[in-house]
Amino acid sequence: DAKAHLICQLYAQAIEAYQQGRLVICCDEKTGMQVLERKAPTKPAQPGRRERREHEYIRHGTRVLTNSLAVATGHIAWTLGTTRTAADFVAHLQRAYQVLPHMERYDWVMDNLNTHSVGSLYDAFDPPTAWQLAARLEIHYTPKHGSWLNIAEIELAVLSNMCLSQRIPDEDTLRRQVEANVCERNARATPVKWRFTTQSARRKL
User: Fold this and answer.
1) CA 25 – CA 97 distance, rounded (Å)
2) pLDDT in tens, 120-157
3) Structural contact between residues 151 and 194, judged by C-beta atoms closer than 8 angstroms
4) Kind of pairing, strands 105-110 and 76-81?
5) How far is CA 106 from CA 15, 16, 22, 37, 91, in A?
6) How far apart are CA 160 and CA 37, in angstroms?
7) CB–CB of 84/45 below 8 Å?
8) What values do phi and psi take at 182, rounded to 5?
């Protein structure tokens, strides 16, 4: 698949591109994250009595976690919201540009969602501003059934295993847990070593 081939090439050349002022960024979203508060507090274990938990929950809706990763440095940027609109996408781009290394050009790898387009910039800004931003980025979509090529999807899976697999009672707790995890990972960030070659992609796809 031509898309898979291009994405693998971007990863293979990410460090060289970074040294030349061009950053490869992978972006993905985790949707449907439930915020569930226990209806009654857990009663701790006591001598002769086990811990007791209330099984009823108060549902506080769902959240969308958007995660971006710079391939050449390993640094992560994230935003949390309740929707996946064009405005949310643009807000995440702006956050990523604040957190990740500043470059002259950006290559974004992401899935082909209708809001993942340059058109979202024109919805959010006046035409001159949108054009100025659009001129600095290029979006590369993962192929159908090939979302696993997106490194950000792998990073979200790691984040889910580390701090999102438990029930989270409120958005503040969710933000604190994600922030703590991302800060730790950014503090020891290293370039991503992508070992899946274009030949492997051809065989798999």
Assistant:
1) 10
2) 999 999 999 999 999 999 999 998 888 889 999 988 88
3) yes
4) unpaired
5) 13, 13, 6, 40, 16
6) 18
7) no
8) -65, -40
